[in-house]
Amino acid sequence: MTGTPAEAVLNQLGPILGDAISASRGVREQYSRSESYRIPALPDLVARPSTTAEVQAIVRACASSGLPVVAFGAGTSLEGNAATIMGGLCVDLSRMDQILAINAADMDVRVQPGIRRKTLNAQLRDTGLFFPIDPGADASIGGMTSTRGSGTMAVRYGTMRDNVLSLEVVLSDGRAIRTSSRARKSAAGYDLTRLFVGAEGTLGIITEVTLRLHPQPEAIAAAVCPFPSLAAAVEAAVFVMQAAIPVARIELLDDVMMRGVNRHSGLSYPEAPTLFIEFHGTPAGVAEQAEVVEGLAREAGAEGLRWATEPEARSRLWHARDNTLYAGRALRPGCEAIITDICVPISALAECLEATKRDADESGLLAPIVGHVGDGNFHMLILVDPADAEEIERGRAFHARMVRRAISLDGTCTGEHGIGTGKMVYLEEELGDAVDVMRLVKQALDPRGVMNPGKIFTLAGGGAA
Q1: Among candidates 148, 33, 139, which has minimal Cα distance to 83?
Q2: Of the four listed, 147, 306, 424, 430, which is most buried by Cβ atoms within 10 Å?
Q3: Structure letter (DSSP) for residue 236
Q4: What's the rounded Cα separation, in Å, for the pair 249 and 246?
Q5: Which segments of the chain belong to CATH 3.30.70.2190?
Q6: How many whole angstroms from its chain centre is CA 181?
Q7: What is the mean pLDDT of residues 14-42?
Q8: The CATH number of 217-330 is which of 2.170.120.20, 3.40.50.150, 3.30.420.40, 3.30.70.2190?
Q9: Are 431 and 414 in contact (CB under 8 A)?
Q10: Cα–Cα distance, 302 to 19 (Å, whole number)
Q11: CA 18, CA 27: separation in Å to the nearest integer?
Q12: Which residue has the higher pLDDT, 462 or 348?
């Protein structure tokens, strides 16, 4: 490493960070991959700051040496969003994991980016408030913000875009800025908060997040509802959404995924296309919602609902749903999963899902489905043999058709996982000239191109974002 930018940064930061910065290969390998199926990428250095001031020092050192700097949360990203594909310094924010202020009267909380969502809700329990965004994985709040995450409860509570009130961000020149006040509405200048939510660390490193909180529901009920066909399950979901019933979650698992869930979690649900539904509210409100949804489901052909009202039963149900990545992989041991993430208008969901399912079958691919169908967002886990180049190529070609089908229906290539390294070509196809505007923003805020390069888009002239 002699004479390299990494050595210069290590020499500069060593006296500041001490053992919180490392060039050890063993340490670096821990940060070389995430839940993504993509090829591991080894950082040159790993730093674990504890304060915003230390993040500022890291960014200044990297900027002066031209060394890429990439923020890392819990490692649960699925598109290589935090991969150091060009080397550089990986900033592990897990030590910055504190709640800084709970404003119960205003229903908001200010946190550091490394806190995990489950830890946050455990510490909020006595306030009567909770943070509802649930991507399944126990992700960090900073990572969820950077990828504009959402998950199972977005159908009622929105996504990270709707629940982040303000940010503190360290820019590429080392300045720390606050993007907004805590006011619930503002017309003060550009909406910088939304600019950084979903920027995947390409414009700055998030060091504080102020989140909107919600009252803990007085009553909760959940149901598992199997259907005779995928079309019937989708029809029921569309009925529910078009009736404006405020369900908290409405998730779809196809028959293949239900088989995997049963095997992985030791359950005995019917192996048929199934909706997992949850209701939040007052006891009377939950009962009314459940009655209406049950009627709509039966009208669409539901084969009976299995209710879960006790916390333990609901926990088992949603634990099974949250582990569908591992359940899907267990259907084919030794496989890798190409994870897809398209989203379409709800009126186009049935057409998109059925066409995609037929395409998978005709391609000879094992690809279980799980979807946040209340939002029109669904995923397929394309299970491929990592040693079979032909099968991998077949899986990628299927993925490309799937994404382009969604775009043709006025949908998107990513509902919640972000662009990362894997969807740059699709972003260009989806948004066209708007990507040029993103490039201008990137060049203005990160002129040296050190903030998480190689993500979201390429820069004009062949450089990396």
Answers
A1: 33
A2: 147
A3: H
A4: 9
A5: 217-330
A6: 25
A7: 89
A8: 3.30.70.2190
A9: no
A10: 58
A11: 15
A12: 348
Provide the Cα torsion 325, 232, 352, 380; round to 10°: 10
Structure tokens at 125: 């329990």
Residue 111 has pLDDT above 90, yes or no: yes
CATH top-level class of 5-92: alpha beta
Q: Does position 462 have pLDDT exceeding 50, yes or no?
A: no
Torsion angles phi and psi, residue 451, rounded to 5: -85, 105
Tell me the two tokens of residue 268.
Answer: 């005995």
With a cut of 90, say whether residue 36 has pLDDT above it. Answer: no
User: Which tokens hold the place of 187?
Assistant: 């017309």
Q: What is the mean pLDDT of residues 204-213?
A: 98
The 10s digit of each residue's pLDDT in 298-334 is 999 997 788 887 888 888 888 888 889 889 999 999 9
332-423 has which CATH code? Answer: 3.30.70.2740
pTM value surpassing 0.90: yes
Closest CA to 314 of 248, 214, 220: 220
How far is Cα 89 from Cα 275, in angstroms, rounded to an integer? 43
